[in-house]
Amino acid sequence: MKVSLLNLKLQYQGIREEVLKEIEKVCDNQSFILGENVAGLEKEIAQYCNTKYAVGVASGTDAILLPLMAVGIGAGDRVITTPYTFFATTGSIVRLNAVPVFVDIEPDTYNIDPNKLEYIIKKQTAAQRARLKAIIPVHLYGQCAEMEPILKISKKHKLTVIEDAAQTIGAEYKGKRAGSMGDFGSLSFYPSKNLGGFGDGGMVTTNSEKLAEKVRILRVHGSKPKYYHKFVGINSRLDEIQAAVLRIKLKHLATWENNRMAGAERYNKLFQDVSLPNAVSLPAARPYNRHVFNQYIIRVKKRDALREYLAKECIGTEIYYPVPLHLQECFRYLGYKKGDFPVSEKAAKETLALPIYPELTPEEQEYVVSKIAEFYKKTS
Ligand SMILES: *Cc1c(COP(=O)(O)O)cnc(C)c1O
Question: Which residue's CA is the nearest one to ligand 1's atom 5?
Answer without folding.
Answer: 60
